[in-house]
Design a protein that fits this description.
The chain is an alpha/beta fold and 350 residues long. It has 14 helices and 13 strands. The structure holds pyridoxal-5'-phosphate.
């Protein structure tokens, strides 16, 4: 039996429909803005998000970097969560390349930040301070375990930032998961954000690519910054074609990933050696800790040897992510493997 890979939804492979669309994609030179498929993807994405324009970029990391470079000048400051992807997993790119300082505010367990703490972090007009320009939010929140922020939760954080004239960027790598979990329209959820980055390469299963969305003026400026970081691509329509299939055909399917993550988490409640907080299982991720004498590294190796791969988030937390190709059978199999490696099922569990 092939191994069940729950490390991330980025391990998904392009679907047959994507390969077909890539094969037939009409292409041109996108640095001249003459690739019709890239243009279609950008228009369709902007429309779905209710924004004026969108820009196809190579990755979520590039989308966030280009957004920060466009919102901030050298010496400016962006406020973001201390568990945000941009702060933790993007090599400090905004500082390395943009001279932007990242001012962190603690992320709460649900992935939000306390509006009072955001307000406290915003600098006054003082020659000693960097200028605070930007607030970055993340939805769903990766390191908090795929937690979903509602419009109201985002609004409470955005409201204070807007009071001080800050721009708002949303790292929406999995914002489709958030909209599906909430049962709301994407455009409504992100209405108050000036820019949004989203990934086609995660739950939507496209092989490569993200989009940065915002106003026409913002995207015109972002186009230059994408060029600065080497993100101008030529016949990128072969990639955009797959992303378009993701956008058009794979969004509603995310509900299955969420149901499967719940099924996995509920099953894990019966296994002796793991702890799961069901309140935080809100999209396609299950974050868990071990309750075992075995060190984490050994557990990961034993699970892998039995055919189950999960990822380590830090020395305490492990993560399992559901995605295309993971169905009920794979979840049951994953639970059997966990039970075997982690001390069996609790008494009374079926
Ligand atoms: C995956 C991810 C990114 C970055 O995407 P890459 O395409 O891997 O660069 C950014 N933000 C969040 C929240 C993510 O989960």
């Amino acid at each position: 039996m092939p191994s069940i890979d729950l490390r991330s939804d980025t391990v998904t492979l392009p679907t047959p429909a994507m390969r077909e669309a890539m094969y037939h994609a009409e292409v041109g030179d996108d640095v001249y803005q003459e690739d019709p498929t890239v243009r279609r993807l950008q228009e369709a994405t902007a429309e779905k998000l209710g924004k004026e324009a969108a820009l196809f970029v190579t990755s979520g990391t590039m989308g966030n970097l280009v957004a920060l470079l466009t919102h901030c000048r050298r010496g400016d400051e962006a406020i973001m969560g201390d568990n945000s992807h941009t702060f933790i997993y993007e090599c400090g790119g905004a500082s390395v390349l943009g001279g932007i300082s990242m001012h962190t505010v603690p992320n709460l367990a649900d992935g939000s930040m306390d509006p009072a703490q955001i307000e406290w972090a915003i600098r006054g007009d003082n020659v000693h301070f960097p200028r605070t320009r930007l607030l970055c939010l993340e939805n769903t929140h990766n390191r908090c375990g795929g937690t979903v922020l509602s419009y109201e939760q985002m609004h409470r954080q955005i409201e204070v930032a807007k009071k001080y004239g800050l721009a708002i960027h949303l790292d929406g790598a999995r914002v489709f998961n958030a909209a599906i979990a909430l049962g709301v329209k994407m455009a409504d959820l992100v209405a108050e954000c000036d820019s949004v980055q989203l990934c086609f390469s995660k739950g939507l299963a496209a092989p490569v690519g993200s989009a940065l969305c915002g106003s026409k003026a913002f995207i015109d400026e972002a186009l230059r910054n994408r060029k600065v970081v080497g993100g101008g691509m030529r016949q990128a329509g072969v990639l955009a074609a797959a992303a378009l299939v993701g956008l058009e055909q794979m969004v509603d399917r995310l509900a299955e990933d969420h149901a499967n993550a719940r099924m996995l988490a509920e099953g894990m409640l019966d296994i002796r050696g793991v702890n799961v907080d069901m309140n935080l299982v809100q999209s396609n991720m299950v974050m868990f800790t071990l309750n075992s004498d075995k060190p984490q590294e050994q557990v990961l190796q034993e699970l892998a040897a039995e055919g189950l791969r999960v990822s380590s988030m830090d020395s305490l937390h492990l993560r399992a992510v559901t995605h295309l190709g993971i169905g009920e059978a794979e979840i049951k199999q994953a639970l059997c493997i966990m039970a075997r490696v982690l001390g069996g099922r609790k008494a009374g569990a079926v």
